[in-house]
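Let's study a protein:

===
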Amino acid sequence: MEASIICYLGAHKRRNGELRRHLSGISQKVLTQQLRELEEDGIVKRTNYGTVPPKVVYSLTESGYSLRHILVDLSVWGEEKAKEFNAMGSNIVIKNTSDLIMKENENE
């Protein structure tokens, strides 16, 4: 799930609710835990605006962007390999890579 967070943050700064809606099936507890881990690892930056109601946004750090490029490249490689295997009779299903690649292109 952390890879999904990193890839989704690549396009824009996001609030907690946006992340939770995009990452369907993740609990608030798990999302908070993973965001904290990514922040501790220097991948995600948390900005608290100190307003009422609270406004907190998450974005990628330079290291986060660097890691995101690797994840996108890995995703593209996996999609190409899946197509090769499918051409030989396998039945590999690819999920969500077009969303990932589209967001990568928004940053270029």
Observations:
- The radius of gyration is 16 Å.
- The domain at 2-106 is CATH 1.10.10.10 (Arc Repressor Mutant, subunit A).
